[in-house]
Amino acid sequence: MDMGFYTKILKPIAFQIDPEEIHNLALKLGSILGKFWISRTIISALYNYSNKRLETKVLGINFKNPLGLAAGFDKNAKITDILPSVGFGFMEVGSITALKCEGNPKPRLWRLPKDNSIAVYFGLANDGAEAISKKLKNKSFEIPLAISIAKTNDSKIKGDASVEDYYKSYLLTKDIADFIVLNISCPNTGDGCSFENPLLLDKLLKRINNKNKITFLKISSALERKQVDQIIKVVDKYKISGFIISNLNKSKSNLKSSKEELDKVKGGLSGEPVREPSNKLIKYIYKKTKGGYIIIGLGGIFTAEDAYEKIKNGASLVQLITGMIYKGPGVIKEINKGLVRLLEADGYSNISKAVGMNNFVD
Fold first, then answer.
1. Residue 17 to residues 20, 111, 297, 328: CA-CA distances in angstroms?
2. What is the per-residue pLDDT across 320-336, written as a single tens digit (0 to 9) for each?
């Protein structure tokens, strides 16, 4: 199925239906397709693309390409069987919390087509770490699996109790995933970004510090550079592998959507509004740490050029969700093919050679 069929026929129909209903339908369909060898094979024939230039090894993990599914789409790990067939190089599930969360009241998902964005206000709705880890425990995965964990959405859980909340999820998931993501920047809970505070972050990293587990921090692009510097200073004390940049952005300035449209939505924005803030923060952290941390770039990836800019700014891997919603699953193949074209044009034999190169041409 090419992107034209999706964008001209399927998307106009889907966009007439409530976003969360379509999201749930996509998960149900993906779960069914992932159960059968024949459906996985057909999907793979349609969407998979491989090229040696895209293969990369990061922190000892092999990736067939650098493009992954970000956390937030498959919160309860329902479609891990089909995602490799769609062409992703890795996948991130969650965010998962220690206790089951119903999330925020509906509606909690809105489309902003003029801005190629989704407004997200789920509030960490998920089945909880015990249920999800039990589901994943004895499975094998064709591509690397990341699990994103966050603090349970309950503002009564504070201070040391919130650290222990994270730690419970960490213990349940660390031996299942290829790497763990500590989501310290969810904008849709009462205290979701509290762990971007250096003092609380230090307590958290001290508690979960595990020299044998690859761990990333997911941070917001809305942070002031002074705050970023403080976070890096804390991270330097512990065995943290890198950063995912960035989470949803709550800023509604400089958007094409009308005030009336924006007044209806809550939560953080994905997609195009996040692209530039994410790109700038990737470049800043790569420069600040002299490439000392692995960066996974996220936010506003719709084309190969979008992905390539994040890579050249310092990201070793990239992720998307919104690009797939607006352009269909065929966008994964299109981006990977486009990355090969861009690498060839720049004379790079492998995607790893392009990482951070924008920092040497200013």
1. 9, 11, 30, 16
2. 999 999 999 999 999 99
